[in-house]
Every structure is written in structure tokens, then in C-alpha cells.
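Tutorial sheet, problem 5. The four components below are modelled jointly, 1904 residues in total.
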Amino acid sequence: MSLLLNGATVIDGVSDKGLDGRSILMENGRILAIGRPDEIPVPADTETVDYSGKFIIPGLMNANVHLFVNVLFETLVRYEGGYEDLIVEASQVALRAGMTTVFDTWGPRRALMAVRDKIDRGEIAGSRIRCAGNIIGFDGPFSGDFDSRIPGIGSSHFVDRVNATWVENTGRHLMWLTPEAVGKEVRKYIEHGIDFVKYASNEHGGTSAGAFIQFSERTQRVIVEEAHRAGLTAQSHSSSVEGLRMSLEAGCDLVQHCNMTGPAEIPRETLELFTQKDCGAVVFPLTDNGMAVLRETISDHEWTMWKASDTNSRHLIESGATILLANDGGIFAPEVMQEPLIKGTWNGLPEEEALGRLATGHFVWLRAMEEKGMSPIDLLRAATRNIARAYRVDDDLGTLEVGKIADMVVLDEDPLQDAKNYRSIHAVIKDGALVDRDALPERPLLTAELRAPLEEEARYKKSLHHGERLPGCPSC
Amino acid sequence: MSLLLNGATVIDGVSDKGLDGRSILMENGRILAIGRPDEIPVPADTETVDYSGKFIIPGLMNANVHLFVNVLFETLVRYEGGYEDLIVEASQVALRAGMTTVFDTWGPRRALMAVRDKIDRGEIAGSRIRCAGNIIGFDGPFSGDFDSRIPGIGSSHFVDRVNATWVENTGRHLMWLTPEAVGKEVRKYIEHGIDFVKYASNEHGGTSAGAFIQFSERTQRVIVEEAHRAGLTAQSHSSSVEGLRMSLEAGCDLVQHCNMTGPAEIPRETLELFTQKDCGAVVFPLTDNGMAVLRETISDHEWTMWKASDTNSRHLIESGATILLANDGGIFAPEVMQEPLIKGTWNGLPEEEALGRLATGHFVWLRAMEEKGMSPIDLLRAATRNIARAYRVDDDLGTLEVGKIADMVVLDEDPLQDAKNYRSIHAVIKDGALVDRDALPERPLLTAELRAPLEEEARYKKSLHHGERLPGCPSC
Amino acid sequence: MSLLLNGATVIDGVSDKGLDGRSILMENGRILAIGRPDEIPVPADTETVDYSGKFIIPGLMNANVHLFVNVLFETLVRYEGGYEDLIVEASQVALRAGMTTVFDTWGPRRALMAVRDKIDRGEIAGSRIRCAGNIIGFDGPFSGDFDSRIPGIGSSHFVDRVNATWVENTGRHLMWLTPEAVGKEVRKYIEHGIDFVKYASNEHGGTSAGAFIQFSERTQRVIVEEAHRAGLTAQSHSSSVEGLRMSLEAGCDLVQHCNMTGPAEIPRETLELFTQKDCGAVVFPLTDNGMAVLRETISDHEWTMWKASDTNSRHLIESGATILLANDGGIFAPEVMQEPLIKGTWNGLPEEEALGRLATGHFVWLRAMEEKGMSPIDLLRAATRNIARAYRVDDDLGTLEVGKIADMVVLDEDPLQDAKNYRSIHAVIKDGALVDRDALPERPLLTAELRAPLEEEARYKKSLHHGERLPGCPSC
Amino acid sequence: MSLLLNGATVIDGVSDKGLDGRSILMENGRILAIGRPDEIPVPADTETVDYSGKFIIPGLMNANVHLFVNVLFETLVRYEGGYEDLIVEASQVALRAGMTTVFDTWGPRRALMAVRDKIDRGEIAGSRIRCAGNIIGFDGPFSGDFDSRIPGIGSSHFVDRVNATWVENTGRHLMWLTPEAVGKEVRKYIEHGIDFVKYASNEHGGTSAGAFIQFSERTQRVIVEEAHRAGLTAQSHSSSVEGLRMSLEAGCDLVQHCNMTGPAEIPRETLELFTQKDCGAVVFPLTDNGMAVLRETISDHEWTMWKASDTNSRHLIESGATILLANDGGIFAPEVMQEPLIKGTWNGLPEEEALGRLATGHFVWLRAMEEKGMSPIDLLRAATRNIARAYRVDDDLGTLEVGKIADMVVLDEDPLQDAKNYRSIHAVIKDGALVDRDALPERPLLTAELRAPLEEEARYKKSLHHGERLPGCPSC
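Model answer (C-alpha cells):
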């Protein structure tokens, strides 16, 4: 059966502007034709939808999500054996929010690949997933890279099991090896069926705010070569100006959150490497208002870092680098979002400015980069074509062209007028079919309501807590 | 339908020795007759079992178990919503091991009472449960009384919920109140339907090894009075000589682990209070071999404490106090028992000497107290009649007498010959019916095998772990 | 040589009001005569001072200071071997601030007694010291009672040495003993030459905010009896309503910070015990403004405690209890007072409201209690006569009467008009001689200026610090 | 005045063997002549010493000591303002042990340079010091690089001051900068007057056992270039095979503890770089017996590291690399050496095997490397000529040649016979004069006896300590 969409303004991502009154015909998941209504032969058995006054854009993409990001000890215990359920939920949240393809750049490989394959086979609804598994060089959720308090709190049986699930053969121990030996481990990991390779150019930040270098330049080259030899793209996790430069020199296809370089700004010569090397620049921007809110809760040193990252984003725009939308998008357990401490983090920003939320953060990204001066069509491409190209999937995805996979979003308002109009999603089409957005996520887990406290619990909160101290103690 | 047991030596707990070749007839859960075969009229529709050569004793009791003792963070997350399942499992482990009645002296009240009632109604198999809920004065599993590291690791939502489930209105905050105000809270807690009251005379030991006093003597009196007014018995958690003395003066019906008084021995005048006040002395003894094994792993200070507790046990026997068998019996998750650190604790003793295990610890108790000089019949009574009397349930339980509930254990070997013969359980009869021991526990959870490690996990263990340090670092 | 003071209004603490135009003659440290100028025979060789328009009051006393309170690890290392120097400094700060006698209720016994004796012998200037040494039952500065983080940070050699210096034979281990055995240790400690006995009725608060009871009522009685048998007064550290009641029942001569009873108010019957038992009520009050400032930085639970303590203070006034001025007065190292964290504590209040500072806190006390309704003459007596009586030194101290020790303060303004006038100190006379206040403290250590930072240090503060984290880390 | 030594076997370090019956004449600190007695013209006013039967070798050198290594919080407080005293003490301990020149590769720059200059000017006795100050890239003693527990325990005033004293402008914050910007900071640091530059190729090990890379290859090159431009040598702190390779590629003159590369062995191609690049290989070896003792106390993972380091040492010998003696030699406070925990570290080895002790560790080094197969003359050169060459001071030091500085050690036994004979020091000559070894160190501080415990302290140790727990607690 075919699907014909009539009457909309089509912003195909190829042309620099929208084309009014276009029709799009699709069949078997691909675009058969785009054009004026009279140019398109309509097969029998075609469902027709009138989208007059609407705007059709390519399906949104996200160059960096974590469909399973909430590696809180509690969550990992509670959902052990059910990680796939959480990933399905997240991929459906993404799809509902207009993202027809997401690139998961860190997570539990087996569960991610299992869900990826079920979605690819059409067994379940969800955003198309391409995934990296672990970030080469990082240890697991219960380690110095994430939460080093857990070993000794959790049983070692569980701690080791969880860490092993994330790390497999790609953890910090690779840092001890020669470049060649690291390459061999990466090759082994690729053979499991991941879609692209991500490695740590800088440490994760539990240690020195991300300043340490994880792999030497030579090792980084070897990792990138292994990825390319296997036909995959390679990318790095980078968080310092040297970590960034090394990633670019090593031949990465894209670099994650490349605007984040601690308190230092990216030097001009490194900015230029993006175009020289044709490397995608994944940027994590905050809105002006988000910056202002954050300023209130963080130290001067931290602020220095956010300011530098903001300046970097602007310089990257000016430098002509190919910019990619991404936001570490994930879903946190509601218990976490309720904690008072979350306020002091970027995840605790008001929803309008919270970049990291899977369901809405990409809209924040678009508004933030509009504020920093990106043009409307560049914003669209950052969320579609640029990502497809950097990940080498632009034969199938990223623009609305005949022959490509029929992924698209129908908006009520013109996204080229105002970036906030991306929120006006009217419909999502994936693989040539309308998505039943109201049904998503089919089984809310982390996005479900937190259940009400027990009667005792409420009472308990009112009485004295552990750890509180006597007022007036002279030396405490 | 009636049940007739023929041919066994019956050690009824009333007489000081066994009576050979006796028959016991039971119906509707109660004992109809005990006597020589020819003395007993056998109704039609009677099932007869020949136990010639066997020994029948009253059903074993345990004055202090914790059917849900494994308050490890992981366990509490994993089984949230399923605490009853764990309690059912434990009560079946107890029943299989010959304990027809157990007194649970600390645990989640609602779940314990729910299982208690299902067993009482005959809906599920299990040891008869009588329970106290929380120990009046203790905070929850995630507090200074148990594990103070968890707040801040677990979400406050979960931490508060768990603590509230255990504590309700009976936590440390009562320490701030006047005796009368504490009494009011105890009354409220009793109304929930607990079977007896347990309060903290000493702190739980997370702080100063149990030396602090939790409630003043006046408050202790008020708590005991509230229990008695409601027709319940009262007992205390005590861990110092003053905590013990205060409990006795306050009128407790029994005192838990009264032999544990830190590094100090119980003074003579306090020993005498047990008989003067007719108070049950619950003793936690180690075997000589258990003591020797433990000595290897603990500090001199800790050893002082164990030695004093051993001396106390012997003095209690000599003083003629009514001694009760108990062992904090519980089931720990297999992950926990596998931890290297468990070795240095009494739970890490070899099974033959490990007092605290629910399935076997009572056998250890009997051997340990035999070593310290208790007579065979006193050992039996410590495990049966003395417990029934102290808990005021001796109208129904504790001895084999006509009219009492038909709970009994059939042994292959004579327990009055050697305490180790209690292990030779041939059959268990509860409420006048044979227990299908082989079927218990029906659904193993904490007693199930630990699943095998992931392939990755095994590999992970071989590579470098978090937290290990460079050899040769001069100042680390 | 004699000293004659003429012309002042004398508020002798006996009469309820000031007597104008009185002269005071003193010799050999004692008051020879008080009266109208013409009533007093003036010996030859008499120095005469005209204090017309001034107000003379008895020397101020403080019922609870800690001349060595700053048990910060750093301070204890830096001044090891020189603890006496710190105590001399503090006693001179106290004297300069009008306190001619202070009762040190916790500190290093040997050093305190050494300084006490030097001052008594007139070898050095300083406030008259009477001291208790350790609080019976408390462990040392590097323990769960004060700072439990230090063992493992400090060498065990040093940690043990410091703890031993404070604790000697009177630490937490006494909690294990019978009342009689505790009594024996107290007797031994008294023999070292302390001036009064202070024991812990409640724990120090590192644990459960001060709610635990440290010693049973019987043990408390024995401790008090030992003090009285030796001719010393006894007092307790109390921080809960039961801890307070037990102290009163045990026969204490005074109870420290008795208004601090956690979140609960003192019940009426306990309030009445103060007069029934003739026990001194040491109160730690905050000013209304101090309370308001503190409210901003503390949690609701902590606020509950401060509010209850405020209500208690008012109730104690109404109940007619004998109230004593005290404030845990001590000197903190300037490094400590500079820490941002100090803001959230009562020591971090603005100087006008900071009760705990040795040099000024007693003035805060007087203003605070005036606000709560104490009459002018009762305020004066709380700071003089009441303290002398409670400590049984009123034969010599506390009022201006012939034969008593000539300790007095000359004020520029009338203290009975307004409590803030106590700050208008014109002169201090101790042992019949004018104190050279400008020379005190003779050797500033903790009261010296903090030296300026190194050039490198300033620079260091501007660069990135350890422990700061990468902005934008998804899971940190 | 001249000094003439007669009769000894001279092992000058140039020839491969000892020359019997040689005389050495020295004046004004330099060697005037070496030869047979009859070849040497003896000036008037010459002191002559007969060393017949003795062996004279060049003054020993140590390529890596830390004259102030004991950066324990306590020590840093106790000796604030007196760091030079500790450095003088250490330099005298070194001199007494035959080391006429030591290279201090990490310490407080100002104090080290001050002592260096006093010794150079002959104002005080001591080993000749050449020093680097901080290791470029490391944060201070109270940071993640050393002891991250102290911030929050120490006052921030003191913590910042200490850290600044060590770090100045060269800490971890340099990791954020571009290579050029790092170079500028290094230049500034060199201008303070340090003798050589040491930087971190790998992190210090507080984090990931030393696996992280601190500076990119490009930054390392820039640092080395800055050193060379200023006429100084450059060296790195390296602890992984990649960290080592990068150091060699960057042009280091020597690499510290290059045999320590975590669990991995140095690959052949990296071994070869030592000779290709003429880079000195500083090795930290353990004796066979030391390895065996250590094995008992460490984990399997740690053992893997020590084994690899041992294999590396052997491979370095085989590869013909120029090997340098060094041992991180320092003096620890006696309190530290007394701690039970020290046993599990290499500093806790029995003195005969403890590599890191300043007074004796170089003797351990020589025995250890002899065991691993170094020839007698190579051992001598590792301790003398090789160090002088690598540090570019071989015009003056390292061998006994006419014109060089007259530093030498007189041994009772032949060091070419057995490495243990280096311990048989008969005399030390520095700058042409006999050292009064018995007088050193002139003022023992860290090498003084620990004073005896207080009476109270001994008693305190016997009573119960904080933190001990109740035996028999079910869930602790």
C-alpha cells in the first residue's frame, strides 16, 4: 500500500528553502516521488492525507543519545533482566518527539542491539537505533568513570556483573596496552555487531573534570583505522582542547560535545581542522536563559567552563564547521529528577532549557543554536542531513529525496521562521508509515508517575532524620 | 481425620525423660491422647504411622528469628513489592528444619503479619509466626542503626520509603519524647496487630558497639506496661550490663541476647534478677570450635567481647535462669555469603558453627550449650517449653500434652543422648498433620543458586579493577 | 597596698538595685569595706580612683567555657606541646572581657590545671579558672564524639596520644561498666585535682543529634555521689528531656545547656524539678535576630530544635529556676572562622549575635535573655551570684560584699537600664587590683591575624581545583 | 690545602676495572692528579691519608630522590615554616650514605633551592642537590594526585597554602591548555632557577593506577624543547608503555621508573628507543627476596604489575640501555613507619629489601640489579657516570678524572666483587674534603626517635576504641 501526502510545504533539506504545495508519495518504506500534485502518478490502493498548511521536514535525527542513561544503582538492580524494556521505552519517546533515527553512543551493547534489531525488523515501534555499545576505554557504571562509591555498597557479584555488561573487553585496562594490542580488542568488539566506534580521547570526568588524556595519539589512530577497516565510522568523547585536536588528527568522522573543552577555548587552528578533515562537530549548547539559570547554582570555576563552551559553539558556527545536533538525550528515573541536588546540574534546568532530556532536549538545542546565530536551514541540516552524512548513512537518510527511506515529520508551523516551531509536531512518518504517537511509549517505566508515598513514609519525613546534629554543639 | 503415631519414645517436655513405646493421637490440629497403645481409643478414619525406634519431641521453637534479615540495599530494591515472598521462603526453611513456631523480633511489620495470617489460616505452609515488627527505638535499614552509607546513594524517595516501612511511628525520634509520649506511640503501634513488643534498651551498635542506652529506665517501664496492658509480652534488645539490668527492672518477660554485654561480664546481682523477676534469658552462644575459628579473624578488643559473652552464658546456666534458644536466624542473599569480608564475622563461620543461619543455627545452639554444661532435658526445654512460657503461649505450645496444638518433631536418634541428634529429623508434624518437608521451600529465592557469571564478567574480573594503585608510588 | 574606688553606683548583686555614690575599699585581694565615702576608713598607702558616673558590678562569671575548644586536627598538631599557651591566651581574652572567673567544662586536664595554678599563684594574668577536665563518658577529639574522620588520616601514634590526653580513664568505655565500677574511675579522676565533675547524661551528638542516653540513672547517681563525697559539685551534659530529667533526679548541682532538648519542649514537671532540687539551669539562648539569621541556613528539622530551645528558655524564666549564664565560650582558629561552611552554624552568626565567642558571647547572652523577659537584676545575678552559688564558691565570689574576693567590673553605662550596657567596660578589677586590659592577651596565637596568602596561593585559588567536574556529564 | 689519598685501589669509572695502589691528589675541590705515588708531585701543605687495602670509587649519585617526601598532613602542619630543616636533614643522611650528589625530582621548590644554595656555598654540610621542584602537571599534596581526603579535613587556608607551595603555576590545570600555552608556563617556572625539568607523562596514580596520559605527545615535545632551550635536561614521570614511548619520542634525557608500566611489559621497539634516542633509563628494582615478601601482602592484580616491572628491568639490561640508579629515596616520619598498614607497601619491606629508604635504598638497588644480571662495572656506572651523563653534569661529576670535582667514596671491600660491598663505607670525600659522617645528620627530626607514649595513651590503647562493633549484630 502506498501513502500520499498532499498540500504541505516541503523542506527537503536539499534545497535551501521550503517548496509550497508539494506532494510526497511513498511505498515500501521509501520515497517514490516528490513534486507538484500533477507531476505524481498515484497508484491504486494509495492512502492520501491532506497536509495543506503544514510543513514537512526530514525525520529528525540525534547524533548522541543514551537510551539507557540512568545507571543509578537502584535502577540497575530494579530492571536487571529488563534493560531492553527501558531501551524500547526510550526509543518510543524519541520517535514520538520526531526523532526517526537516533545514534546511541554509550550503553549496554547486547540490550541495545537486541532492541535495534527488533525495531529494524518492524516487530516493535521505535526510533531507528544505531549504537556503539561502550565507549572504548571507559570502565563500567560502578567505577571511577561513573560512580566509584558503589563497589563495597553493592555485592561484588552484582557490581562485577553490571560493569562487565557495559565494559566487556573495552575498559580502562586498554590504557595499559600498546596501540596494536588496543586495536585487536577494538576489532573483537566490532565483531559483536556494533554500528560505529566511539572511544575516549579524554577521561570521563570523575577524576580531573575531564582533563586527562585516555589514549595516546598513536592509539587513537589505530582505533579509527580499525573502525574504518570494518566499514564503520569512528568518533571520540573529547573534553579538552588537546583531546579534541588529537581526535581530529586521528581521523575521527565526528567528535562528541566538541565545544566542551574545560575552561579553555578551542584555538583557531583546531577549529579549522574540522573543515580540513571533514569532521562533524557535535555541539552541546545551552540557551541564554539556561546559562543564566545555571549561573546561579554553580561555582566560578564551573562557570568558566560553561562560558568557554558557549564561546566555542559560536566560534564553531563562524568557522563553517559541519555542526550536528545532539544532547546526550536520555530518561532519568523520576526519583532522580525529584532530588534536590539535581537543581545544581544541567539536568535540573527548567524543562524549556534542559538540553539533556530525550523528549524535548533537541528542541532546546535548536533554539539555543538559533540564538547563537545559526541560519534556519543550517539548523535543519544540523538535525538531519549533517548527521546522516557524518555517520555515512546519507544514502538512506537525512533528506527528503526519491529513493531514500521515507522518514519525515509534519509540523503545524514553519520551522524556518522560528526554531521553536519544531515543537509543533503534527505527525511523524517512519519507514513510509504514520506513527501512532499517542500510543507511545507503549509501556511507561521510567516515564511513569512516581507512586505516592506510604502513609508511614510521609510521617517519617516529618520526624527526625539520621545524620542531623545537635544545634549548639561547640565543635561540630 | 485423625492421625495416630505409634511406637516412638516420646519426650514430652513435661517429664524429665523419654517414655518408650508411646502412641500419640491427634485430631483437628490438637493432641487427643498420649499413652501406651492400649490406653488410646482409635477413631475410625485414622491414619496410623509407625515410628518404632524413633523419638518424638515437641515442635522446636525459636525465640528470635528475622525472617527478613537481609536488608542489603540490593535485596530491598530487587524484592520491593515482594517482601512477603521472602518471608514465606524463610518460614518454610524454618519449618523444614523442625521449627514449628518462630518468634520474629524485627522486620517489616505489614509483610510479616500478612504471611503470619496466611499460615495461620492454613493457606500456605510455613512455621507459625509471631512477630514484633520494628524494635521500638530503632531507625530503618538505611540509617545509623544499620547502614548509614545508603542515604545519598539510594534516591531519597526509595530510602525514605524503605525506612518508613520498617520504622513507622517507632524510630529513634522517640528518644526525644517523655516516657508518657513514648507510651502513646507504642500503644498506637500495638493496635496494628503485632504479637509482642520489643524495644531497644541499648542502641543497635552502629555507633559505640552497643554501649549507648536508648531509653531511660522510666521510659522502659512505660513501654513494658503498655505491652502488658494490651495483653502482650515485652522484651528488650540489650547489649550492656546496664542495659540488661534496666530491662530486668523494667519488667521484661524476656531479654534478647542477654549474654552479650560488651567486654564486661554480668554482675552476680543482675544474674539473680532473672529468677527473681521470672524473666526469660535468651542466649546466643558459640561452640568452642566456633570461638576458636573466630579468634583468628578478630581484634583483641572484639575477642574480649566474645569471651565475656561466653562466660555470661556459663554463669546464666549456673544461676538457674530460664534459658531460651534463639539465634537471630535468617537467610542472607547468596551474593552476601560469597563476599570475602563475611569471613571475619560470625555469619562467616563454617556451617557447623554458624549460629545465625536459619536452617541450621538452632542445632549449633544446642551443641554449644551442651558444651557449656546444660543438661539434656534443659536443652530440650530451652528450645520448647521455656520459649512457650516466656511468650505466654504455653497453653497451646511447648510440650506434648493432651489438648495442646499437635506440633512435634520425629527424630531418628535420641536427643537426650547427644545434642547433635537434633539434626536427625525424620518428620515434622504441625497442627496435627505431617509436613511435606521435601517440598520446602516451595519457591527458593534467597536460597536459590546464584546464577553463573556472564562470560564478560569472568573476563572482567581478570583485568584491572578500579581503585588499584601503582606499585612503587612513594607517597600513596 | 589598698585600693579605694570612689563615686560609682555600686550594684552589689545583694541588693536589687544600684546604690549611688558608694566607695569600695579593698586590700590583699579582698573587699575591706563598701559604703558611703564617709563610712569608710582609708588606710595610708591607698590608691584612690574616682569612678563617679560609673557603675560597679561583681566580676562577671561564665558557667561554661572551653578555653581550648578548637580541637581541629591542624591546631592540635601545630600547638602540640604548647596547649598551655592557648589556654593562657583564652583566659586573658576572658579577663579582658570582664570575666574574672570562668568554669571550663571540657578540655585537656593537665594543661588547664597548670594554667589555673599559675594564675592562682599570680604568676600570670588571666581569668580565674576552675575546670573539670574531660566530660565523664566522652571519647577524645578524634572519635565518634567529635571528629571520627581523623583516625586513618592522622598517624595512630598521634591520634591515640591526643585522645588519651583528653580522655585518660573517663571515656566511652565506662558505658560498659556497672555503676560501682564507673564510680571507682570517677574517684580516680577526681584525685588528679579537678575542681568539679561533669558527666554525659546524653551523648555528644555526633550520632543521633544528642538523643542517646550515655549513663543509666543509677550510674548518674553514683557519679554525683562521688563528686559530693569529694566535696565537689557535679553537673551534666544534657540534650534531651529524659537526659535532663535524669540529671535532675541524680542530684546534679547544675545542668549544662538544659534548654537544649532536641525537638521536644521540657515538660512542666521537669521544669519544676529545678527549684525542688535547687539545681542551676545553664541556658544557651540566641537573640531574636540571631534566630532569624540562623533560620535562613538550616533545615526545618534543625529549626524545630532551635525553636524548642527558645521556648524552653522562656519557660525556665517563668518557672523561677535559677538561671546561669554560659555559652561554651571559646576561641576558634581564624582559619576556621574563615571557612564558608561556618556560615551555617551558630558560630557563624554575625558577631553581634554569635553566642559562642569567648570575648563577646556573654554580652549576647545578656541581650538574648533580656529579650526573653528576664529582669535586669536577674540578668546580673545569672552572670554572677547564681553561678557562684551553683558552683559552691559563693563564700568568695559572686557578689560585692565585705570579705569576699575583690573581683569587679566598672561600666560606663548602667547595666540595669539596658543589657547592652554590659559591653561598656571601663575597667576590670581582679583580686583587688586593676587589670591592664590593653595588654591582654599578651601573646596572641589563635587571636592573631591570619597571615597573608603566598603569591602562589592566590594564583592557585584562581586555577582549577581538584574535585571539580565536567559540565555536561550526563550521569554525574 | 691539598689532600692526598694513598694506597687504595681506585675504580675511577672510566676504566673497566680497579687500579691498585693508586694515589689521588686534590685541591680546591677538584682532582689535581691520579696515578702511581711516584707519578704525583705533592705540594707542601698537603694532608695525606693512607687507604691501603681500601677501594675508592666516584661519589655515589642518585637520579631520583625526594628530600621532602613525607607529605603527611601532620608533618606538613608540624614543620610549616621549617621545611628547609627537613631537607637539610635528608641531604645529610644522603651524604653520610655515600651519595655526594642527589637529584631531587619532586618537592617544595623554594625550600629545596634554598638548601641547595647553602650547600653549594659551603655554609652547611650535605649532599649536592639538583632539583626540579614540582612535576609539571601534578597538583599538590592535598589533591587527587596525592591525598584527596585532606580538603575538608584541613582548613582551606592551609590546604591551599600547601598545595600552592608545591604547585605554583604548574599543576593539573595545565592539562587544559594548548601545547604552546603549557610551554609558556614551563618557561616561567624554569626562570625561578630549577636545575632540570620533570613533567608527568602519566598521571600520578591516585586515579587509575597511573594509566592515564597527562599530556599529549605534542605538549610533551614542547615541554622538552623549553627545557633544552634553557640549557636544562628534561625527564618524565612515566607509568605505562604508551606514557614511556611518548616520553622517548618527545626527546627526554631520562625517564623515571621506566620499568614500571603497569601490568604490561615494555614492547621491544620501545626498549630500542632508549639507545636510539640516547635516553637514560631510571629503573626501580626489587630484590628477589623483596619480591617474595611483597607477594604475601598484595593482590593478584598488583602482583602482575610488580612482575612486569621485574621483567622490564631484565629486558632493559639485555637491550643495552643506559641504566640509572634511583629509588625515590626519602625519609618518612617514624609515626608513619610504625603504622600497621605500611606492611603492605614497598616501604614496609624489611630494611634489607626496602628500596625507597634514603639511607639504604641505593644499596638495595645495587644488589637487586646484580641479581638481575648487571655486570659489576655497569652497576658502578649506573650509580655514577650514567647519572652524570644523563643529567649533563659529566664535565664535573661521575668519574674520577683529573679536573673533575673531587667527590669519592672509600670502601673497605671491593664493590666489583660483590654489590653488597657498597655498604662498607669507610669514608666519604666531597668537594675534595673528608666528610665528618658521624656528625650527620646534625639535627635529627624525622630520623629522631619517636617519643614514648603518655601514660594515658598506653592505657587508652587498652580500652575500647571508637568504631568497633557489637559481636553478633545480625546485619552488620
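Marking note: Residues 60-390 of chain A form a domain with the TIM Barrel fold (CATH 3.20.20.140). Full credit if you identified this.
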